[in-house]
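Quick one:
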Amino acid sequence: ASMFVQLLSPIKSECLTLLLNYNFLFQYSEVSDAVPLQAGRYNVPPGQPGGPSVVQYTTVSVPIEPPKDHIIWSLFSFVHLNPCCLGLAALIHSIKARDRKAVGDLDGARHYGSTARILNIVSSILAAVGVLLFIITFTVTVAGHRY
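Output:
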């Protein structure tokens, strides 16, 4: 039994070292993935061919883009293109998205931001259709009075 423990002791210490290195890298990076390139325990002195070597890690940090709140578009929709009060609803959702982003709730901010985007799209389409109908009606009316 003691021989079995002596055989497992180096393996346990190597695994513990790898685990501690992985936890250290994961703890001190925003989004990282540590991948060991070489690891192992050999009965050869360090530095010799086939012997233990330094474990190398590659840390990849991926920046996370903050969610968009579309506040400028919502202000424009509220001030200029406010059919059916959709601009006001978009502005309220944009402000809620900005508040959620400030608190750190990125999922809530994405939800409110996407709702504000949809409301802005619908508001812009309705306003464009309204302006187009006004132009067509105005030109038909003016052309009808000339003849």
